[in-house]
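Ticket #4471: structure export looks truncated?
Reporter: QA, pipeline team
Priority: medium

Steps to reproduce: submit the single chain below to the structure queue and open the exported record.
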Amino acid sequence: MNFDLLKNAGIDAEDAVKRFMGNESLYARMLRKFLDDSNYDELVRAIAEKSESEALTASHTLKGLCGNLSMTELFRLFSEQVALFRANDWEKACEMMPEITENYNKITQTITTWLEQQ
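Actual output as written to the record:
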């Protein structure tokens, strides 16, 4: 599989495939599942409703997903947001959403394009 498109979007697919014991098709299936995951929508909803515990849960889950799938920049952003939520800095954590949303949209669009090419 050609991972250049993913790499250009900040996904270290070669590293992730190693984590998936070399199984590229399993990695592709996990990327499809990422597209269907509802945690980003849950994060947006929780922030809108000012539900701090639900926002932390969604952000923490996304951090783990991004880490496992080697989405390096998005992982970094969610790691920072989780730390802010845990430090009770709700305002700064919420201020990260435009950057997170931009990166998340870029990643999901790239994954969709890459999967269509497979």
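Status: closed, not a bug. The export was complete when the record was re-opened. Leaving a note from the reviewer for reference: The chain is about 80% helix and 0% strand.
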